[in-house]
């Protein structure tokens, strides 16, 4: 391995050698889809929920791009991503694992009283509890708790501590409850909408309404990479209407509701909204 190899790529290659599918993260986001596969236009591997590069020459589709192939990890297509990477991510399901992401102290306290002890990894705000076995992924299965496995990625934060045990029924029950539960009541979410003031001279109310409806539809029809889709939609809406004063809380609440219907938590919606504003300098 050359001395110029980025440090995070070295970590990724070591994990790949141990059978853990990995990919680079830049500012918490995976590599963007190539133009041929934007919005999963290729209709390929993400729809089959299979990890690994899609049929096009470039690695795409968030978690589905994770791989153990050193030729892909060191390919020119990912060169810039590793040079500017801020973290290594991995696909838990591809490694036969499930990560219970506990996002705050209350969630950790709940886990310690309910879940079977297993390997634990400290995170910025909470802990990752890692189990052997796979299950579908779901966000917000209870306050501050996400389950990451077959169709999601997790940030690599080190090997953790403790012996890893088999996925307990208590985790499976969370997802069964999530599936059987009636649609949650959509509560209002206070979001910061930048208002510059003045009439929007280059957009009409009809244009804005059509744009919001199309954004809702794009979120609703997303089949994979929901986090990325929600962020991209928020970014697009803000870039068109965020500075002219015509975008209201009611418009953004419609987008939040569409995202929550796809399994996003209120926290993830708020984070995606805030990150989109930051990216646009708002």
Provide a short characterization of the protein structure.
With 282 residues, the protein is an alpha+beta fold.
Features:
38% helix; three-stranded antiparallel β-sheet; 12% strand; alpha+beta; 282 residues; five-stranded antiparallel β-sheet
Total strands: 8
**Tell me, what's the shape?**
globular
Average of the residue pLDDT scores:
78
- What is the helix fraction of residues, given as a range? 25-40%
Distance between the termini: 42 Å
Strand order of the largest sheet: 4-5-3-7-6
Indicate the structural class.
Answer: alpha+beta
Biggest sheet character: 5 strands, antiparallel
Number of helical stretches of at least 4 residues: 10
Point out poorly predicted stretches: 39-53, 179-190, 194-199
The percent range for strand residues is 5-15%
Report Rg.
20 Å
Order of H and E elements: HEHHHEEHEEEEEHHHHH
Write up what this structure looks like.
It is a single chain. The protein has 282 residues and is an alpha+beta fold. The protein is built from ten helices and eight strands. The strands form two sheets. It has a five-stranded antiparallel sheet. A three-stranded antiparallel sheet has the order 1-2-8, with helices on one face. It is globular and about 60 Å long.
